[in-house]
C-alpha cells in the first residue's frame, strides 16, 4: 500500500531560545519597553499565584484548581495579543487569561470553591466562565464570532484547549464552523504534552496538532509555547487577521505543566520521568524572558523581588474578598434557573423555605 | 384568518418573529435556500436574507454550540435539529450548556434559544427519526419542553417560545405537520408556556395526553362515550416541562380517575413525572391508580410494525376500562 498520509509541515515559530537570545530577529514583535516589562510582571504574577493556589488548595481554602506553572508564556502571551473587547472562551486551566482580561481574581477563587458568584462575570468583562466540558467552549466560539460579524463589530472570539482536547469532536466542529462561515475566531491549543496521564502521542498519529487546522481549511501555526514573544507574535497576527475579516486560525503552543493535572489527587511522577521534567524546566519561560530583559536592562533581581511581594498582596486581598462573599441559599439557586421560576420550582422553593407552601 | 396546516402555521410564526425582532436568527441543516426538509422555513431566507436565515455545516453539536455563542452575545437563535433522533449529537450543548447558562453564570449570561425539531411516529421514517426523546429534557433542569398538537397552538406556542427569556425545546410531530388544516389568525398572538388545555370536557375519567396522542385520546373518548356512555375529560398538556399540574388536579377532583397517554415508551416521556405529581397533589381525590397507556420499553419499532406499536384509540379505551374497573 502506498503512503497516502497527507504531508503538512506547519510553521514553527520561535523568537527567543532557552538562554534568552533572539533566534529570529525578523519575528521580534514591536512592543514598547513598558509592554515588555508588563509581560514579565504578568508571568511572575502567574507563577506566584500558582504556587499560592496549590498551597491554598492543599489547605482546603481553594477547591478545584488546575496548575499552570510552565504555561505562563503561552497563557500570558496570547491574552496580551487581544483587545479588551475581544471575547475569551476559556477552559478550566485558563484562569490567568481570564484574570488579565478583567475577570476579578476573587471571583475566580469563588469559582474554584464552588460559589455561584464565581461565574457571574462583571458586565463589560468579555469573558465566559471557565468551561469544564472539554471542547464545549470550542463549538460556542463560532457563535460568539458570528455575533461580532453580524453586528459589524471588529472583535474577535478566542478559545483555549489542551492537547487532549484536540481529540474531541467539538474541537473539529468548532474550527470547521468558523472556517466555513469565515468568522473572526482564534483557536489556541496549549499542548502541555499530557492529558492527565496520557501523553500527546497517544492522542493522535498526527506529527503536530497545528496541522489539524488543515481539516478545517484554516491556517495552523505551531509556536514555542515557552517563548512569550513568539506566542504574542503569532497570536497577535491571528487575532488581527481575524479582526480584518480574513477568517479564523488555529495555534498550537508547545508547552509543559510543571505541576499535576489538577489538585484533585493527580500525581505526575506516575507517568512522567524526572528527566522529562528537568528537560522542560530548562526551558522555563520565566528564565528565558528574564535573561532577555536583563540583557536589555529592563529587569533586575530587586525589581522581581518587589513585584513578587506585590503579587502576594494582590492574591491576599482577593482571598479576603472571596471570604467575605455571602453564603449561598438553595432558594437563591432555584431563583436563578429561569427568569421567572416555573410553578413546579415555586412549589419546591416553598417546601424549602416554608414560605407560602401549598 | 386563513386555513393552515401545522407546518404553515410554524413558518408563519417564524416569519412574524423574524420581522418583529431583528435578534432572531433561524439556522440549521437545509433551512436556508432549500426552505427546510419539511418546508418549515420556506421563503424565509429570500425574505430576510442569508444573515438571518442560513444553512450550517452538518454537525448538530456545532449547530447548538453556535446558538449558545450567539445567545450569550444577545441574539435570539432559533436553530433546527433536522430530526430529534439526532439530538444525541448535541446533548452536551443542550443539557450540559444551554440549560445551565443562566444558573452557572448567576444570571450574567442567558440563553434565549428555541430549538425546533421534528419527531414522532406513524409516517414510516428510517431509524432514529421518529423516536420520542422529550423525556430526556423533562429530566433536564433549565429547559422548557413544548409539544403542540394543532396548527393554531403551534403558532401561538412557537411565538411564546421564541420570546421566552430561557431555552425552549419545541418539538413538532411529523404526523401532525400536514394531517389537517385549521383556522389560524394572521395576527400576533401567543399561548402561554406551561399551561394545559382541556380539549374535551368529561366527568368520568381524565385522559392526559400531548402531541399526536391528543387526537388519539379524543377519538378514544368518543368511542368510550358511544360504547359505555362514559365521558372522558381530555387534557392537552401542550407544555410537558414544566407540567401544568393545577389543570390536571382540577380535572381529577371532578373525575377521580386518570390515565396518561404518550407515544414514548413506558419508562420514557413525561408520563411517570405526571403520575408522580398527581400522587403528590391529588391522591385523596383518586378512586383508582393512575395508569399509563404507552408503547412497551423497546427501541422504536421497525417501520413495518409501527402502527401496531404506537398507542391506538382502542388501546386507550381498554386502559380507561381498566381504570374504571379498579
UniProtKB/TrEMBL annotation, chain A:
Keyword match Oxidoreductase: yes
Q: Which UniProt keywords apply?
A: Oxidoreductase, Pyruvate, Thiamine pyrophosphate
Q: Reaction catalysed by this chain? A: N(6)-[(R)-lipoyl]-L-lysyl-[protein] + pyruvate + H(+) = N(6)-[(R)-S(8)-acetyldihydrolipoyl]-L-lysyl-[protein] + CO2
Q: Which Pfam families does the annotation name? A: E1_dh
Which residues are the signal sequence here?
A: none
If you read the UniProt record, what top EC class would you report for this enzyme, in one word?
Answer: oxidoreductase
One GO MF annotation is: pyruvate dehydrogenase (acetyl-transferring) activity
- Domain Dehydrogenase E1 component positions: 40-328
The cross-references to SUPFAM superfamilies, in alphabetical order and at most eight, read: Thiamin diphosphate-binding fold (THDP-binding)
Required co-factors: thiamine diphosphate
The EC number(s) this enzyme carries: 1.2.4.1
Enumerate the CDD domains for this protein.
Answer: TPP_E1_PDC_ADC_BCADC
Instruction: Give GO terms for biological process.
Output: branched-chain amino acid catabolic process
Where on the tree of life does the source sit, at the highest rank? Bacteria
Assembly = Heterodimer of an alpha and a beta chain.
Give a short account of what the protein does: The pyruvate dehydrogenase complex catalyzes the overall conversion of pyruvate to acetyl-CoA and CO(2). It contains multiple copies of three enzymatic components: pyruvate dehydrogenase (E1), dihydrolipoamide acetyltransferase (E2) and lipoamide dehydrogenase (E3).
Q: What is this protein called?
A: Pyruvate dehydrogenase E1 component subunit alpha
Tell me the lineage of the source organism. Answer: Bacteria, Bacillati, Bacillota, Bacilli, Bacillales
UniProtKB/TrEMBL annotation, chain B:
Isomerase recorded as keyword: no
Q: Where is the Transketolase-like pyrimidine-binding domain?
A: 4-179
List keywords of the entry alphabetically.
Oxidoreductase, Pyruvate, Thiamine pyrophosphate
* The protein's required cofactors: thiamine diphosphate
One Pfam family here: Transketolase_C
Known InterPro entries for this protein?
Answer: THDP-binding (IPR029061), Transketo_C/PFOR_II (IPR009014), Transketolase-like_Pyr-bd (IPR005475), Transketolase_C (IPR033248)
Please tell me whether the keyword Zinc is annotated for this protein. Answer: no
* GO terms, molecular function: oxidoreductase activity
Record's protein name: Pyruvate dehydrogenase E1 component beta subunit
Name the lineage. Answer: Bacteria, Bacillati, Bacillota, Bacilli, Bacillales
Amino acid at each position: 500500500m502506498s503512503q497516502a498520509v497527507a504531508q503538512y509541515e506547519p510553521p514553527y515559530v520561535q523568537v527567543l531560545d532557552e538562554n534568552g537570545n533572539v533566534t529570529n530577529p525578523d519575528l521580534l514583535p514591536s512592543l514598547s519597553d513598558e509592554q515588555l516589562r508588563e509581560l514579565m510582571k504578568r508571568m511572575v504574577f502567574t507563577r506566584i499565584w500558582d504556587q499560592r493556589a496549590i498551597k491554598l488548595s492543599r489547605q482546603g481554602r481553594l477547591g478545584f484548581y488546575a496548575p499552570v506553572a510552565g504555561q505562563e508564556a503561552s497563557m500570558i502571551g496570547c491574552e496580551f495579543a487581544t483587545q479588551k473587547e475581544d471575547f475569551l472562551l476559556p477552559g478550566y486551566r485558563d484562569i490567568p487569561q481570564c484574570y488579565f482580561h478583567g475577570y476579578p481574581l476573587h471571583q475566580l477563587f469563588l469559582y474554584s470553591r464552588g460559589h455561584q458568584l464565581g461565574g457571574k462575570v462583571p458586565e463589560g468583562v468579555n469573558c465566559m466562565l471557565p468551561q469544564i466540558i472539554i471542547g464545549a467552549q470550542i463549538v460556542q466560539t463560532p457563535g460568539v464570532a458570528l455575533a461580532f460579524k453580524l453586528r459589524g463589530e471588529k472583535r474577535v472570539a478566542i478559545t483555549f484547549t489542551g492537547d487532549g482536547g484536540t481529540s474531541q469532536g467539538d474541537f473539529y466542529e468548532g474550527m470547521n464552523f468558523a472556517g466555513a462561515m469565515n468568522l473572526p475566531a482564534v483557536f489556541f491549543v496549549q499542548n502541555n504534552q499530557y492529558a492527565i496521564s496520557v501523553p500527546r502521542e497517544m492522542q493522535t498519529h498526527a506529527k503536530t496538532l497545528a496541522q489539524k487546522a488543515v481539516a478545517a481549511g484554516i491556517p495552523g501555526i505551531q509556536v514555542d509555547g515557552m517563548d512569550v514573544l513568539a506566542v504574542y507574535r503569532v497570536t497577535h497576527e491571528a487575532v488581527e487577521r481575524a479582526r480584518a475579516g480574513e477568517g479564523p486560525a488555529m495555534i498550537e503552543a508547545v508547552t509543559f505543566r510543571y505541576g499535576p493535572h489538577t489538585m484533585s489527587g493527580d500525581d505526575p511522577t506516575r507517568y512522567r520521568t524526572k528527566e522529562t521534567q528537568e528537560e522542560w524546566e530548562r526551558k522555563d519561560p520565566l528564565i528565558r524572558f528574564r535573561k532577555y530583559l536583563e540583557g536589555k536592562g529592563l529587569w533586575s533581581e530587586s525589581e522581581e523581588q518587589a513585584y513578587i511581594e506585590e503579587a502576594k498582596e494582590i492574591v491576599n486581598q482577593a482571598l479576603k474578598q472571596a471570604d467575605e462573599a455571602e453564603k449561598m441559599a438553595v432558594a437563591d439557586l432555584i431563583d436563578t434557573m429561569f427568569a421567572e421560576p416555573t410553578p413546579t420550582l415555586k412549589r419546591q422553593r416553598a417546601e424549602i423555605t416554608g414560605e407560602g407552601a401549598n | 384568518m386563513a386555513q393552515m396546516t401545522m407546518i404553515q402555521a410554524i413558518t408563519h410564526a417564524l416569519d412574524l418573529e423574524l420581522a418583529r425582532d431583528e435578534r432572531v436568527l433561524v439556522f440549521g441543516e437545509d433551512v436556508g435556500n432549500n426552505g427546510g426538509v419539511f418546508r418549515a422555513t420556506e421563503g424565509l431566507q429570500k425574505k430576510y436574507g442569508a444573515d438571518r436565515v442560513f444553512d450550517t455545516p452538518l454537525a448538530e453539536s456545532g449547530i447548538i454550540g453556535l446558538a449558545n455563542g450567539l445567545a450569550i452575545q444577545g441574539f435570539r437563535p432559533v436553530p433546527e435539529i433536522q430530526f430529534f433522533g439526532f439530538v444525541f449529537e448535541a446533548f452536551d450543548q443542550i443539557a450540559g450548556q444551554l440549560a445551565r447558562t443562566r444558573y452557572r453564570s448567576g444570571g450574567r449570561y442567558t440563553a434565549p434559544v428555541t430549538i425546533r425539531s421534528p419527531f414522532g411516529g406513524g409516517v414510516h421514517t428510517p431509524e432514529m427519526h421518529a423516536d420520542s426523546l422529550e423525556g430526556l429534557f423533562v429530566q433536564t433542569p433549565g429547559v422548557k419542553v413544548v409539544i403542540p398538537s394543532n396548527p393554531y397552538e403551534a403558532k401561538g406556542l412557537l411565538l411564546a417560545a421564541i420570546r421566552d427569556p430561557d431555552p425552549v425545546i419545541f418539538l413538532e410531530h411529523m404526523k401532525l405537520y400536514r394531517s389537517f388544516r385549521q383556522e389560524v389568525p394572521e395576527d400576533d398572538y401567543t399561548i402561554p408556556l406551561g399551561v394545559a388545555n382541556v380539549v374535551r370536557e368529561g366527568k368520568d375519567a381524565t385522559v392526559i395526553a400531548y402531541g399526536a396522542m391528543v387526537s388519539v385520546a379524543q377519538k378514544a373518548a368518543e368511542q368510550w362515550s358511544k360504547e359505555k356512555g362514559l365521558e372522558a375529560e381530555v387534557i392537552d398538556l401542550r407544555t410537558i416541562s414544566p407540567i401544568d399540574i393545577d389543570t390536571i388536579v382540577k380535572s381529577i377532583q371532578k373525575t377521580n380517575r386518570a390515565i396518561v397517554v404518550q407515544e414514548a415508551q413506558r419508562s420514557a416521556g413525561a408520563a411517570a413525572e405526571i403520575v408522580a405529581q398527581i400522587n403528590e397533589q391529588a391522591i385523596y381525590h383518586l378512586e383508582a391508580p393512575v395508569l399509563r397507556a404507552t408503547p412497551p420499553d423497546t427501541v422504536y419499532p421497525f417501520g413495518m410494525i409501527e402502527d401496531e406499536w404506537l398507542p391506538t384509540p382502542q388501546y386507550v379505551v381498554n386502559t380507561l376500562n381498566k381504570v374504571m374497573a379498579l
